[in-house]
Write a structure and sequence with these properties.
The complex is a heterodimer. By secondary structure, chain A is mainly beta. In chain A, 2% of the residues lie in helices and 52% in strands. Chain B has one domain: Bira Bifunctional Protein, Domain 2 (BirA Bifunctional Protein, domain 2), CATH 3.30.930. The chains are: A mainly beta, B alpha+beta. Chains A and B meet through strand 3 and strand 5 of A and helix 6 of B.
Chain lengths: 190, 306
């Protein structure tokens, strides 16, 4: 891979640091008028998700990381791996539990996900911002109670548990914001 | 643009009221700065060039030659160029206000800088710390005595320096720019003065409280470094030594050497009056006056669009 110096660092660039692939979020040039120049760089470790700032001497360089984001279709899981496919090449990738993390809660077959590949292997999965999933377990719906604003837990097909309004019944399909894990609405009829 | 015009006019009025003469000196000079931390742009080719010339990184050397010849207070508002300095507070081409006061020491000049800043930014309380006192108060360390290991330990408490390595000045610069500076002059203006000799640059070095200090000062406003000044070194022999030390350090760091400015040294040998001088970033002053968070917001066309 190519090497990048602090002058080249741009938001979104992927570099290797301490053996892990990291994404550059921000790069600030800091230089006292008569002193040495630094770059204060905000990074995210793509393996652990940790965000932090590290200071480099200006002109230092880091190796680029072989990391790319691809849109893929989620196929299925065999319990050990989760399988994804690139729609245009039909190439399949298997992601392990470390890469999937908590995202399995929002994976629905045939949904489009962003898969981050590191050296050609899935490193992390970003589900769509909104998914529609069916409720498999919740207390009976209170018909007509659309006003009190109360909520109850509801378990979805994926195993995720979200808070839903009291009027929602078992078996209904709901729309969830995967970034917050919050109920949005009943699913649009399709 | 209108605010810049108004600011420039206010600055010129300030100096005119104090009978300080506006001057202009060359931008394209035979000698570049020797300071290892500052890189000039080099102009290589042209029919008028027998040898490469340097775009000046500040008008300091030329203004000192005028002072040696004249002995009158002078100021200049000009462009200056620093290669590789680009960021939210740096543009490789920028505007610098620089002025010199024969007979002033650096404390008298700090008072005058404060007067000017008040005119541009409104009334602000004035704070003054010596460099040593600032480090002792805020970081409980004596910057003149601490070892590299002690400074490293303090830095690691506040930030992630990764694999940074360097001399004492690197760690002092890191603590100053990352830990101390962001808090300096918030809602006020804060002068820091009397720097370690290794950071004296072109300031006179004196003995104070059994320590050698460089009579240099910097001004910080709302966490931004705004001005840098000296009680000026007037000794030609010592100036030559500092140029040579700079070049030795440049060799050590793998940088190319810079030709020494013999014209400045000749002027110092002829006699520079005791004086103090200061350089102030005009673009940054405008950022503070307008609340801009990026230098490009106060430039007609920034580096990317110039």
């Amino acid at each position: 891979m190519a090497y990048y110096t602090t002058n080249d660092f741009r938001s979104g660039m992927k570099v290797m640091l301490d053996g892990d692939p990291c994404s550059i979020l921000d790069n600030e040039f800091v230089k006292p008028g008569k002193g040495q120049a630094f770059n204060r760089v905000k990074l995210r470790n793509l393996k652990t998700g940790r965000q932090w700032e590290r200071t480099f001497k200006s002109g230092e360089s880091l190796e680029g990381a072989d990391v790319m984001d691809r849109a893929m279709e989620y196929l299925y899981t065999d319990g050990e791996f989760w399988y994804f496919m690139e729609s245009d090449t039909f190439e399949q990738y298997q992601a392990d539990a470390a890469a999937v993390g908590d995202s399995y809660l929002w994976l629905k077959e045939q949904d489009k996900c962003d898969v981050t590949l590191y050296n050609g292997v899935p490193l992390s999965i970003t589900p769509p911002n909104f998914v529609e999933l069916q409720i498999i377990e919740t207390d009976p719906g209170l018909k007509g109670d659309t006003a009190t604003g109360g909520t109850k837990p509801a378990k979805l097909t994926t195993g995720a548990v979200v808070k839903v309004p009291l009027f929602i019944s078992n078996g209904e399909v709901i729309r969830v914001d995967t970034r917050t894990g919050e109920y949005q609405s009943r699913a649009s009829k399709s | 643009m209108r605010k810049r015009a108004a600011l420039l006019s206010a600055l010129r009025q300030f100096f005119s009221d104090r009978a300080i003469l506006e001057v202009e000196t060359p931008l394209l000079c035979r000698s570049g700065i020797t300071d290892p931390a500052i890189e000039p742009f080099v102009v290589q080719n042209g029919d008028s060039l027998q040898q490469p010339r340097f775009l000046q990184t500040s008008p300091e050397y030329a203004m000192k030659r005028l002072l040696a010849a004249w002995g009158e207070p002078i100021f200049q508002i000009s462009k200056a160029f620093r290669n590789g300095e680009a960021g939210s507070r740096h543009n490789p081409e920028f505007s610098l206000l620089e002025w010199y006061r024969p007979g002033f020491d650096h404390h008298q000049l700090m008072a005058e800088v404060a007067d000017l800043v008040r005119i541009c930014l409104g009334e602000r309380a004035l704070q003054k710390y010596s460099y040593r006192q600032l480090f002792q108060d805020r970081l409980q360390v004596d910057p003149f005595a601490a070892t590299i290991a002690e400074l490293q330990t303090i830095a690691r408490r506040h930030l992630d320096p990764g694999t940074l390595s360097g001399d004492r000045d690197l760690w002092l610069d890191l603590l100053m720019s990352h830990v101390l500076q962001p808090q300096l002059g918030q809602g006020t203006m804060c002068f820091v003065y009397d720097y370690p000799v290794s950071q004296a640059a072109l300031a006179r070095v004196v003995q104070a409280d059994e320590l050698s200090v460089g009579q240099r000062f910097e001004l910080f406003v709302d966490g931004m470094e705004l001005a840098n000044g000296y009680c000026e070194l007037t000794d030609a022999a010592e100036q030559r030594q500092r140029f040579e030390r700079d070049n030795a350090l440049r060799r050590e760091r793998g940088q190319c050497e810079r030709p020494v400015d013999e014209l400045l040294l000749a002027a110092l040998a002829h006699g520079l009056p005791d004086c103090s001088g200061v350089a102030l970033g005009v673009d940054r002053l405008l950022m503070l006056a307008t609340g801009a968070s990026h230098i490009r917001d106060v430039l007609a066309f920034d580096w990317e669009r110039s």
